[in-house]
Amino acid sequence: MSTEDGERSGRPKQVVTDENIKKIHKMILNDRKLKLNEIADTLKISTERVHHIIHEYLGMRKLCVKWTPLELTFDQY
């Protein structure tokens, strides 16, 4: 019996990549009403990782069903 992990099939360990960040950003810019699960299903990554990328790397949040930058001025609301 071994205590080490063997090779496993499935998703790669690292999904927060520049490529995925760019893909998510492009998807959101094309359709600001996209849902997290729609993005996750398209890219085959978890909704938690999509949420993390959108909030931490792209600095966006949902506002009235649309993704918007976090730092808006009062006039932009």
From TrEMBL:
InterPro entries: Transposase-MT_Hybrid. This is Uncharacterized protein. It comes from Rhynchophorus ferrugineus. The lineage of its organism: Eukaryota, Metazoa, Ecdysozoa, Arthropoda, Hexapoda.
